[in-house]
Amino acid sequence: MKKKVIYSILVVLFVAAIIVTVVKGFKVDLYYAEGEVVTVNVGRDINLKEISGIVKDIFKGQDILLQEVEMFKDSFSVKTTKVTEEQLNDLVKKINEKYGSKLSRNNVEVDHEKNVHLMDILKPYIAPIGLSLVFILAYYAVRFRWSAYMYNLIKYLIIVGMFTYSVIVLCRIPVSLITMPCLLAIYSLVVILHAARSEYLNSKK
Predict the structure, then answer these.
(1) What is the pLDDT of residues 163-191, one digit of tens each?
(2) Is the separation of the CB atoms in 79 and 34 below 8 Å?
(3) Nearby residues of 171 by Cβ (< 8 Å), 6 or more positions away
(4) At what angle do helices 148-170 and 2-24 cross, to 10 degrees?
């Protein structure tokens, strides 16, 4: 009875997550989101921590992604949701004050980046995950001879998949660079624990 209630709740959450995905889509981290990328070549070595302080002051209240863009450490880029000419002029002014440079607005490039499609994020993982799943199921088929252990593993993987998908979508957790590695870690843990339990139960027969 308890299992039926849990499964029913999971199905309701999963359906709700699908509806939210269709209506709103996934929430993504700024790294994958649509935004404006501001690139500045200062022309001399920069300290990213100092640049970070300047950038945070100019783009107050906005999500920002700051990184160096060249190996010579004289350029940086800032990705954010929107940029105004006033902000760009303030950025140039503060960079000049900090580094004694003579930059102008013309030295600042602004490019619009479209959001990354979810399939492009998943694509590098599809083949490795599929191959790993084939090997895992092959192991279960040989080791446990197509017993209930194998079907239980598939069931648990589906349940974990439905649950994690529902949590990510309904709680509006941003999809970021660490999302897939974290999900793979969860799935690996499920497989390892289930395999250990299956070996233990099988040894008791």
Answers:
(1) 999 999 999 999 999 999 999 999 999 99
(2) no
(3) none
(4) 50
The stretches of the chain forming alpha helices (DSSP H) are: 2-24, 48-58, 85-99, 118-143, 148-170, 179-203
Tokens of 179: 């999302």
Output DSSP code: residue 187.
H
DSSP readout, 85-131?
HHHHHHHHHHHHHHH-----GGGEEEEEEPPPPHHHHHHHHHHHHHH
Q: Do residues 161 and 11 lie in contact, with contact meaning Cβ atoms separated by under 8 Å?
A: no
Number of CB atoms found within 10 A of residue 17's CB: 19
> Which amino acid belongs to residue 33?
A
Residue 64 tokens, joined: 């920002």
Strand partners, 65: 79
Write out pLDDT tens, residues 101-148.
Answer: 889 888 899 999 998 888 888 899 989 888 998 898 888 888 877 678
**Counts for the chain of helices (H) and strands (E), in that order:** 6, 4
**What pTM, to 2 d.p., does this model score?**
0.80
Distance CA 187, CA 180 (A): 10
Nearest to 87 by CA among 118, 114, 64, 70: 64
Q: Using an 8 Å Cβ cutoff, are 111 and 128 in contact?
A: no
Q: How many CB atoms lie within 10 A of CB 105?
A: 12
